[in-house]
Specification:
Helix content: 40-55%
Number of strands: 10
Oligomer: single chain
CATH class: Alpha Beta
Number of helices: 13
Length: 340
């Protein structure tokens, strides 16, 4: 393993107040978002959409790395350039989603396990040869009546740790994503309790698998109430609870924490990240960054609508959201940026 190279790449991914752009939606997820807007669900339109994203001027000012989907890395822009080459030329580090998605966990109704470890070593070797420098694996934890169970948490944490060890063996930085979902009517306190348990378990498994913490990034959820919960805490309360949970669970050796947006609105995700950095930046052992998908892409997708004539306006919206999140990393985001 090239340990120093892993450490250097990890540092670059969280440097300069930049963050990650998650554009790794699977076929079903991307098609679902297209269908909602009446966009035909074809491989060519998915390619067009992702070309619109990576060719956005100035994106590298706020984005350090982009997480791609397997379909995308084998596609080309209309001028024949590969997506990987375009990102590298912009100074954006290309990465890849490597998990195989979630399936129902046997014997555990309402819970899921992520698949994809079979042949992962060989896939990672190929990805590294293609010039990809980091990878992502997502585990899903649902809060509900009697769940999550310890069995579900342990199984997903073990898979995350095995994936991370294989990534580092291949010279790729692992993005470790244990997502406690926002779906449901659970309180913020319940989210805190579950997330704390999940993160303790994940880092225990990472230690057992020999994962070098200096060469990885954690991609967690923020501590938020369920979307259907009657009580929705303030931005300040969410920021305080999130940092408190992370201080209890995340070792100082981890260079960066890049939050997922998880269904938050673009503005709320930026505001919550901003408040964390206003209150705690330079007081924490790790960088607080972002790895947003919908919270960066959604406004641009709504504008693009599958039509070439809308590309300039869509790219302007995408650039704006990226700039807002870089400002949030600096603790300089405010509502005036949205009005402009």
């Amino acid at each position: 393993m090239h340990l120093q190279e892993l450490i250097n790449t990890t540092k670059l991914l969280v440097a300069d107040n930049k963050g990650l752009l998650a554009m790794d939606e699977s076929y079903p997820t991307c098609n679902k978002r297209f269908a909602k807007l009446g966009i035909p669900q074809t491989a060519e339109l998915r390619r067009d959409y992702r070309e619109m994203i990576v060719t956005t001027a100035g994106l590298n000012e706020s984005i350090s790395g982009a997480i791609l989907f397997n379909e995308t890395i084998h596609q080309q822009l209309k001028d024949g350039s590969s997506f990987i080459k375009v990102l590298n030329n912009k100074g954006i580090i290309p990465g890849i989603k490597v998990d195989g998605g979630t399936v129902a966990m046997a014997g555990h109704p309402g819970e899921k396990i992520t698949e994809g470890l079979d042949n992962l070593r060989y896939r990672l070797e190929e990805y590294a040869k293609m010039g990809l420098r980091f990878a992502k694996w997502r585990a899903v934890i649902t809060i509900g009546k009697g769940i999550p169970t310890q069995a579900c948490i342990q199984a997903n944490a073990h898979a995350l740790a095995r994936y991370a060890a294989l990534c580092q063996e291949a010279g790729l930085v692992p993005i470790v994503e244990p997502e406690v979902l926002m779906d449901g009517d659970h309180t913020m306190e319940r989210c805190f309790e579950v997330t704390e348990q999940v993160l303790h378990t994940v880092f225990n498994q990472l230690y057992k698998q020999g994962v070098m913490l200096e060469g990885m990034i954690l991609k967690p959820n923020m501590i938020v109430p369920g979307l259907a919960c009657k009580k929705q805490e303030s931005i300040d309360e969410v920021a305080n609870a999130t940092v408190k949970c992370l201080l209890r669970t995340v070792p100082a050796a981890v260079p960066g924490i890049a939050f997922l947006s998880g269904g938050q609105s673009p503005e709320l995700a930026s505001a919550r990240l901003n408040t964390m950095n206003v209150r705690f930046k330079n007081k924490l052992p790790w960088e607080l960054s972002f790895s947003f998908g919908r919270a960066i892409q959604e406004p641009a997708l709504d504008i693009w609508h599958g039509k070439e004539k809308n590309i300039p306006a869509a790219q302007k919206a995408l650039y704006h959201r990226a700039v807002c999140n870089r400002a949030a990393r600096q603790g300089e985001y405010n509502i005036e940026m949205e009005r402009k």
